[in-house]
Amino acid sequence: MVARKRIAVWGAAYVGLLAGCAGALQLEPSDADVVLSQQLLGAPNPARPGPMTVRTMYYGSGEDKRRPEYRDSVTITTESVDASKLVSLGQSAGERNGYWGFTPKEFPINGRVWYPEGDGPFPLVLIVHGNHNMRDFSDPGYGYLGELMASRGFILVSVDMNFINGGIRQENDARGWFLLKHLQAWREFNTDEDNPFFGKVDMGQIAVMGHSRGGEAVGHAAAFNRLARYPDDASLEFDFGFAIRGVVAIAPVDGQYLPTGRYVPVENVNYLVFHGSHDGDVTSFHGLRQYTRVQFTDDEPHFKSAVYVYRANHGQWNTVWGNKDNGPRSARRLDLRGLLEPEEQREFGKLYISSFLEATLHGDKRYLPIFRDHRVIGEWLPKTMYITRFQESSFRPLATYEEDIDVTTGTHHGVELLGDSLGTWREGRLTLRSRNRTSTSASQANQAVWLGWNNHVADAESDSVGAPASYTLSLPASLARNWALDGNSTLDFLVAPTNAKPGPRRPPRDSAATDVDSASNRDRERDEDEDDEDDEPIDLSIEVTDSQGETAKVPLSRYGPVRKPLEMHIMRRGDQEKQRFDDLFEMVLQSYSVLLQDFVDANAALDLASLTQIRFVFDIAPAGTVVLDDVGFSAMDDAFTRVSAGRR
Asked: How far is Cα 275 from Cα 442, in angstroms, rounded to an integer?
């Protein structure tokens, strides 16, 4: 019971401290805290080095004009590749080719490698940087990940693509293709008896990771990996088919490459994306769009996770890039005072990337709970705020709000939606706070429902409160039994409060108030008497009903903090902030997973096999608005069931 309470309050504990923060917090976890996280997770801290001795080496052309490590220090010499169908240098061709000493017809396959000493075979992980000054080489900036992952039994390669950095555009398809060409080289390393990696690479366990433009490119790599031909020029044949099990996107862009004019789909891989709230380069969480597009269509277990990290920026995930996201002089424009310290930001990266790779490539399910609920490692995480999203392949949707314009029908056939006493009930598209140069960037490409309530009744003679508003999903009679719902199933959904608050309800028709007065009261945003409620936290109840009328109810806040949008100020000047951004916050919805056993614990007579209704009851906070999305059921993994049982 003590452990559950500590986790439940962790996510909100630093809200007040951070609200006026002008510098990063320096808070060290106690030994007791570290033990608590390890006990809850049942596994050691994934950001700590493993037992294996780490070695390093380079492979490349052996003739690199600008990079001595790829000229003088290569252990394995690789052949160049022809990327001329994917990369156009435009007017900069002469200058760039002169600087590098090669053209797109002879691009090198260069990589720096961290690997464990031993016979293996070891899983293979590639990471690629994004766009940066091509003369300020980006590939060394992930050494902290290379050292960590090699010590834990992975081969990690930081791929050199600096020669397509700089002022060129529409090259992100090439970044994805390059990753696959590197995998082709590794396939040869693994089968060549004279190669130092002969037989040491587990080509059945591969992950690709990318940062910024590289974060979009890893999705392209996963998509191209399944194709026979290049979508933009079918004369370029593909022959890849690698066992890519996982994709990690760090502060990615999205939509810079649109094959056949469409966003790139990704299927049947584990997917992790994270983004900082104070990113001064990719200023919106574009990775949410790719997260939404990741689909699970086979019968294998998969999961996807997204994390929004408050006070993290763009560049500090890479030790070369630093905190000035718009170049060396950008501190004149960007407000850097509230950023996480670089070591803190990278500590988050180590925790999540290591956990993801352990779960995905080593099959260590003990780390899965981190992605469903970050609070299980609260004492290991940097002390800031997080919004997290999670979905696994067992998820079966009731309502995703994508299928039609009828607000009364759900996604699954027969699911009906009903609002009662709501001040706001509408479906719409989620937006991003910054357009980031393209008009389509303003959209999250995801639909949701807005639900607003005010339980106060507009009555000049009394301060009355009506029955709580609610939003109900009615289920087909056989759904719960057909889906085999039981105590280890979870009710999953996304929720985020907004700052909006409907006015009080209309009084009953027989009241003395006129229709005009009632409408006036209803349309206003806030009443002066409600000012003391403005800072009141949002909370609500989730209630289920079975076919016999038995009900059970739990509060949402039991499953994580329900916080209003996190404001951020990226620019030093307020007028520049208003010019660049549509809002002071990003609307990122938080995942919640309610173990159905919790409802049975509240009412032992409840029959989960005959559930007929799910109700979101607005009976705790008197007024507010939330955005709701992706309501459905999942089959809980055993590892998380154990952790959840320890928290209840």
From this structure: 16
**Are 122 and 207 spatial neighbours (Cβ–Cβ below 8 Å)?**
no
Residue 457: DSSP 8-state? B
Q: What is the DSSP letter of 277?
A: T
User: Does pLDDT of 571 surpass 90?
Assistant: no
User: Which secondary structure element, helix H or strand E, spans residue 419, and what is its range?
Assistant: strand 416-420
Alpha carbons within 13 A on the beta-carbon side of 40? 30
Which residues have C-beta within 8 Å of that of residue 250, sequence separation ≥ 6? 209, 210, 211, 212, 214, 215, 273, 274, 317, 349
Residue 18 host element (H or E): helix 15-19
Domains present along the chain, CATH in parentheses:
2-392 (3.40.50.1820), 396-647 (2.60.120.430)
Retrieve residue 193's tokens.
């008896």
Total Cβ atoms within 10 A of residue 616 = 23
For residues 72 and 81, what is the distance between their CA atoms, to the nearest angstrom?
Answer: 20
Distance from C-alpha of 311 to C-alpha of 648, rounded to nearest angstrom: 31
DSSP 458: -
Strand 303-309 relative to strand 270-276: parallel, antiparallel, unpaired?
A: parallel
Maximum C-alpha span of the chain:
93
b/e burial code for range 519-558 (CB count within 10 A of at least 16 → b): eebbeeebbeebeebeeeebbbbbbbbbeeebbbebebbb
Residue 481 exposed, middle or buried by CB count within 10 Å (0-12, 13-18, 19+): middle
Encoded tokens for 501: 């608050």
d(CA 643, CA 42): 9
Residue ranges of alpha helices (H) inside 428-487 are 479-482
What is the phi/psi pair of residue 441, to 5°?
A: -70, -15
Rounded (5°) CA angle 554-556-558? 80
Q: Residue 186: left if φ>0, alpha if ψ -120 to 50, beta else—which one?
A: alpha
> pLDDT tens across 419-478, in order?
999 999 999 999 998 865 444 457 898 999 999 999 988 775 666 788 999 999 999 999
Cβ neighbours of residue 531 closer than 8 Å, sequence gap 6 or more:
none
The full DSSP string for 328-376 is TTGGGTB--TTPPPHHHHHHHHHHHHHHHHHHHHS--GGGTHHHH-GGG
Give me the count of residues in the chain: 648
Whether 24 has a pLDDT exceeding 50, the answer reads no
Using CA atoms, how far residue 23 sits from 17, 19, 324, 339, 349, in Å, is 11, 11, 16, 7, 20
Enter the pTM of the model. Answer: 0.90
pLDDT band at 124 (very low <50, low <70, confident <90, very high): very high
Q: Give the separation between CA 619 and CA 554, rounded to whole angstroms.
A: 11
Quick one: pLDDT band at residue 576, thresholds 50, 70, 90?
confident
Measured in whole angstroms, the distance separating CA 531 from the mean position of its chain's CA atoms is 34
Residue appearing with tokens 């299980």: 376
Q: Two tokens at 460?
A: 């000049």
- 411 φ, ψ (degrees, to nearest 5): -80, -45
Tokens of 647: 């928290």
Tokens of 595: 């173990």
Which range in 254-263, 408-417, 639-648 is most confidently predicted, on average pLDDT? 408-417
What is the torsional sign of CA 512, 517, 522, 526? negative
CA distance linking residue 38 with residue 469, whole number of Å: 41
